[in-house]
Design a protein that fits this description.
- With 384 residues, the protein is mostly helical.
- The chain contains 17 helices and two strands.
- It starts with 5 loop residues before the first helix and ends with a helix.
């Protein structure tokens, strides 16, 4: 995990905390076993307000993840290349398999274990693994294996499209992998920076239009607003554009870059505080605006030397964000008997437990499996 972009990891940390807090708050509401800080406590209103701000817009955390993903993938593919873009397809796809599949396989195996195991039919169990509305069949697992799970959820709508938190989080992974299946092919066809930029601009326009279209065509199906592939592709495209512009942004005056970064932070903060992912109207303009703000921040700040001063304690959760994202529903279920009480305080225990599990997963599964897959494919290529 050396030579990492600390700004990216800091944004990942903030995003995963928002997702975890939102899911914890949902569990607390469903089970009614967690309470706010008592009013008699000093600064109780302040802490409860901060807790509400942290947990009320979890979808925006996924919005930021999409943008960061586009930036990182593009930075990895185009490192050292000039304006004549080219992606090594075999190298790209094997790296995606090595990155995504080991933990995803574990995730599905754990989910099946909790489906068939002798676990009590409690509110927290249904919330995490199998809601009373869903039907888990062969088509369900096929959609996960083919990364089309988001479209299954959209097609089923509400409430049938809610399978349980452990499964439902896979919608965002499906959108990412759909984009990355075609992305290296697009790079090899476009070749030139200007052509790629035109294509990405078109993707962004389609994404914004699709939100408006689905809101008006399917107003009762809130999932259709943000879970269609087009509503994620535009955010990933913004991350790609951020990477393309970051080198040119580094040539701008330092004061201009700082001003743009501060404006981006202000815009993102205002959007997070004053809009809601529960509002169909807000979901038309807020995600792309937030995505553009984060893309601007990254493009203008990635080359800043001051980023090295960010403490590792703030960036390490971001380094483990994939494991935190996939494994936290299991941690939530296992620790839930210990999590009743004052919600903001118990959330810290949940977050710490999730971080510990993600750390173990990275050290014992993800890193060794990725190394083994990559070394094995390299050996085959050399032998061939």
């Amino acid at each position: 995990m050396s030579d990492r972009n600390k700004l990216i990891d800091l944004l990942r940390t903030a995003s995963i905390l928002v997702v975890l807090a939102t899911h914890f708050a949902i569990a607390a509401n469903v089970t009614t076993e967690a309470t706010p800080i008592p009013s008699a406590w000093m600064l109780a209103k302040v802490f409860n307000k901060l807790w509400h701000l942290l947990n009320h817009n979890g979808l925006y955390g996924v919005t930021v993840f999409f943008v960061l993903s586009g930036f990182l993938i593009t930075n990895s593919i185009l490192a050292g290349q000039d304006d004549n873009f080219h992606a090594d397809l075999k190298d790209f796809y094997r790296k995606r398999v090595a990155r995504i599949c080991p933990l995803l396989i574990l995730h599905v195996m754990l989910g099946v274990l909790f489906l068939v195991g002798p676990f009590p039919d409690s509110n927290i169990y249904r919330l995490c693994f199998k809601t009373q509305w869903c039907k888990i069949d062969l088509g369900f697992f096929v959609s996960i294996a083919t990364f089309t799970f988001n479209w299954l959820k959209v097609a089923l709508g509400q409430p049938s499209g809610f399978f349980g938190m452990h499964w439902d989080i896979l919608w965002s992974l499906a959108i990412e992998e759909q984009f990355y299946f075609f992305y290296p092919l697009v790079l090899n066809v476009a070749r030139k920076r200007i052509r790629l930029q035109y294509f990405l601009a078109m993707v962004i326009c389609v994404g914004v239009f699709s939100r408006w279209l689905f809101i008006h065509a399917m107003p009762a199906n809130h999932m259709a607003v943000y879970m269609t592939s087009f509503s994620g592709f535009d955010l990933i495209a913004m991350g790609v554009l951020s990477c393309l512009f970051s080198q040119r942004a580094s040539t701008l005056p330092r004061t201009m870059r700082r001003a743009a970064a501060l404006a981006a932070i202000a815009a993102a903060t205002l959007l997070y505080v004053f809009t809601s992912t529960e509002s169909n109207l807000d979901m038309i303009y807020a995600p792309p605006t937030l995505g553009a703000s984060i893309a601007t921040l990254i493009a203008c700040s990635s080359s800043s030397t001051s980023l090295k001063k960010i403490p590792s304690i703030l960036t390490y959760p971001g380094q483990l964000s994939y494991g935190l994202y996939l494994l936290h529903p299991v941690v939530l279920f296992v620790l839930w008997p210990l999590l009743n009480g004052i919600a903001p305080l118990k959330f810290l225990l949940f977050a710490a437990g999730s971080l510990a599990v993600a750390h173990i997963s990275y050290r014992l599964l993800e890193a060794p499996a990725r190394k083994a897959i990559l070394s094995r494919t390299e050996t085959k290529q050399q032998a061939g």
